[in-house]
Design a protein that fits this description.
The chain contains no helices and 5 strands. It has about 80 residues and is mostly beta strands.
Length: about 80
Amino acid sequence: MSVKAQLTGTVVSDKMDKTVIVTVERQTRHEVYGKSQRRTSKFVAHDEKNEAKVGDTVAIAESRPLSRRKRWVLTRVVAKASQV
């Protein structure tokens, strides 16, 4: 049995039914200049209970393909977004 990848990111869209878009930020060093850079990746994740909202910090795990772009599933909501 292989270990599934797990990531933590922020929900940027919850407009679809049972689906959220999560951005994951990472830091890399520039190959030539050595400066530290922030890079982001967007992942489409399955949210069975529609519990995640925009701004929430969530944990996602790798899964089997659920649709053309959806290969991640929401495991838990780490922190709720602060209400303004």
